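[recover] target loaded
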């Protein structure tokens, strides 16, 4: 703990000191170390007020931020702390390459230098290569590791934590992947005319082909599965054991046709035979349909139920454990979810030109559109939120109540751990901000909506990544002004 006498001494020296702002900044840091966040925020506001009228002190304030020192301020009842993560040279950045770590605190992207490319992680530049796979850049689930595909001359190889692995003729699209425990790395490689999976450097069985985007680990990290091709037939491979062959299994064209249950004991996928598609669960084929919605297949959190979207003629319906729901003109397959307690199912459906949310068969209000992947249940499974579109406006709907209308809803709504609060990012014109309890926060150029968007770490605190000019900041907020 910082001695109060030291803090008092700084306060006494500030008045009329030629380096007033530097002392204010030091005082703010001391107050923060004492645990006096509110006083620290007020001191920083005073430093900022002075800096706004003095180019020299403004430079000092910016320098402090660049050194990754936390900068705080108060907006209403919200304490906002900003920490610089990286300054981005947007002229060299490759579009579509930025990735955010699962904990939403780190940023990586691919940049160019002349005719070479390199990866930048939290501002640290990696080795130059002839090229890097734009979609290959990935963080481990624990956010501590980074992997990607690079190529030099005529060979491709995986780079894990800066270490180059074995060189091959090519590396499969959608790989590398980390195991859920972050300890293992797997990818698809090809040499000559054969494809095979490599797990932690060990080459597995060779096949005529392996479908892109189908390589997965089980949630317990103990099993590896993928879709392989032998001649003109497709089969499921689990831990090097070949399953039944079908004319086609949904999994090509970047579709993820394989899923494990959350407890890692069950598996499901979509198969194709005689112009029909059907779900296979634990090796057993289910009802056949004209089509199965890509990426709609899910297990319930308790691993006991399976749900998916299926088509019959020109109509779509949701199937839960073999029970068919109402037919609609379309099902937004990216919205199908179970509640955390596994007792409810929700999804977005279309009737004519209007979209609506369906919760356990109950149809909600109709809109021009429903945000893809925006449906979310509260942790206690009692509430539901999503964003919708009507005319030129977008807005969040919580428990059937429409919230403030904006030009855009920038991130999907999230509930706090106690299920009482809802947060999301919205945009008006060229400014973006986080809305909590219907109160708008500080404005930024953008709130980063790659990855998780906004993350609550307690009922009263949350964080997100935000862009100001060419800089990305980790923004942490605390607010005690909850509305129960």
């Amino acid at each position: 703990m910082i001695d109060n006498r030291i803090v008092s001494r700084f306060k006494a020296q500030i008045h009329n000191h030629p380096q007033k702002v530097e002392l204010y900044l030091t005082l703010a840091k001391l107050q923060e170390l004492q645990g006096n966040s509110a006083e620290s925020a007020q001191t920083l506001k005073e430093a900022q007020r002075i800096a706004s009228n003095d180019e020299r002190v403004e430079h000092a304030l910016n320098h402090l931020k660049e050194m990754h020192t936390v900068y705080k301020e108060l907006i209403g009842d919200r304490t906002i702390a900003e920490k610089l993560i990286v300054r981005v040279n947007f002229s060299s950045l490759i579009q579509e390459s930025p990735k955010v770590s699962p904990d939403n605190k780190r940023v990586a992207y691919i940049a160019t230098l002349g005719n070479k490319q390199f990866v930048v992680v939290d501002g640290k530049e990696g080795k130059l290569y002839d090229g890097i796979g734009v979609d290959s850049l990935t963080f481990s689930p624990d956010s501590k590791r980074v992997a990607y595909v690079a190529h030099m001359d005529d060979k491709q190889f995986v780079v894990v934590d800066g270490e180059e692995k074995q060189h091959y003729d090519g590396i499969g699209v959608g790989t590398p992947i980390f195991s859920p425990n972050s300890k293992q790395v797997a990818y698809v490689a090809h040499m000559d005319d054969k494809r095979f999976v490599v797990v932690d450097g060990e080459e597995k069985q060779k096949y005529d082909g392996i479908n892109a985007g189908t390589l997965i680990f089980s949630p317990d990290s103990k099993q590896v599965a993928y879709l392989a091709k032998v001649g003109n037939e497709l089969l499921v491979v689990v831990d090097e054991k070949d399953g039944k062959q079908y004319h086609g299994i949904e999994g090509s064209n970047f579709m993820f046709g394989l899923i494990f249950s959350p407890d890692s004991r069950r598996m499901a996928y979509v198969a194709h035979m005689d112009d029909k598609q059907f779900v296979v669960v634990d090796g057993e084929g289910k009802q056949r349909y004209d089509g199965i919605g890509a990426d709609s297949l899910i297990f319930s959190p308790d691993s006991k139920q399976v749900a998916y979207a299926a088509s019959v003629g020109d109509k779509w319906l949701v199937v839960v454990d073999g029970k068919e729901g109402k037919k609609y003109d379309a099902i937004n397959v990216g919205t199908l979810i179970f509640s955390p307690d596994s007792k409810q199912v929700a999804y977005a459906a279309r009737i004519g030109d209007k979209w609506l949310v369906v919760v356990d068969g109950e149809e909600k209000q109709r809109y021009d559109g429903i945000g893809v992947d925006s449906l979310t249940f509260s942790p206690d499974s009692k509430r539901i939120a999503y964003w919708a579109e009507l005319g030129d406006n977008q807005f969040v709907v919580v428990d059937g109540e429409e919230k403030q209308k904006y030009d855009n809803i920038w991130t999907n709504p999230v509930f706090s751990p106690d299920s009482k609060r809802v947060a999301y990012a919205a945009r008006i014109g060229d400014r973006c901000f986080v809305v909590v309890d219907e109160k708008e926060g500080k404005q930024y150029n953008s709130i980063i909506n790659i990855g998780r968007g906004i993350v609550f770490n307690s009922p009263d605190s949350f964080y997100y990544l935000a862009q100001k000019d060419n800089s990305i900041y980790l923004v942490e907020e605390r607010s005690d002004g909850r509305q129960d």
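[recover] notes: Helices lie at 4-14, 20-34, 37-51, 55-66.
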